[in-house]
Amino acid sequence: MRETDSLYAVDNFDPIGKANVLSRGIIGSLGDKTVIASPLYKQHFCLQSGVCLEDENISIATYPVRCHEGVVQLGLI
Predict the structure, then answer these.
(1) pLDDT tens, 4-34?
(2) Can you tell me the distance from the alpha carbon of 4 to that of 16, in angstroms, rounded to the nearest whole number?
(3) What share of the chain has pLDDT > 70, as a percent?
(4) Which of 51, 50, 43 is nearest to 64 (CA)?
(5) Range of the domain at 32
(6) Using alpha carbons only, how large is the chain's radius of gyration in Å?
(7) Predicted confidence band at 2 (pLDDT cuts at 50, 70, 90)?
(8) In this model, does residue 43 exceed pLDDT 90?
(9) Residue 24 phi, psi (nearest 5)
(10) Cα dihedral value 61, 66, 71, 77, nearest 10
(11) Are 29 and 71 in contact (CB under 8 A)?
């Protein structure tokens, strides 16, 4: 995995496993994409777009996030 100072915010719900488990997933990279792998069936979701790399018809919600004056701020849509 490459080191980065980027922040990502995604939904915890795994739409394939139908459970709130992504917070227990493994973060890494596949090619040029930073991903989280679900702990259930190991599918990979792009942390930038939310798209599942194994099935582009499936995705998770992503949210804008930033660190402002040392405080992490999350934008809800």
Answers:
(1) 579 999 999 999 999 999 999 999 999 999 9
(2) 28
(3) 94
(4) 50
(5) 9-70
(6) 12
(7) very low
(8) yes
(9) -100, 5
(10) -40
(11) no
Task: Please indicate, yes or no, if residue 29 is contained in any of the structural domains.
Answer: yes
Q: What is the CATH number of the domain that holds 30?
A: 2.102.10.10
4 is a domain residue: no
Query: Sign of torsion, CA 31 38 73 3?
Result: negative
Structure tokens at 15: 């739409």
Does 47 map to a domain? yes
Contact 1, 28 (CB under 8 A): yes
Please report whether residue 2 resides in a domain: no
- Read off the pTM: 0.89
Indicate if the pLDDT at residue 1 is higher than 60. Answer: no
**What is the count of structural domains for the chain?**
1
Q: Which residue, 15, 9, 1, is CA-closest to 54?
A: 15
Q: Which residues are bridge partners to 44 per DSSP?
A: 37
